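Below is our example:
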Amino acid sequence: MLLTYRVTNREALRARLNELGRRVWIEGPEDVRREVVTALARAAGHTSVEEEVGR
């Protein structure tokens, strides 16, 4: 299922995505995706985004 959200509060978005965990996939836009993935990876204790996303 693909859902599209208009985000006005990125901090709230990160909090919600943190609750959902690996059940979600962030498609873009790329700058928002990278910001959110980086913040979540750091919150999970990873030192790099690559460690979190497995690249």
Remarks:
- The helical segments are 10-20, 30-43, 49-53.
- The chain has three helices and no strands.
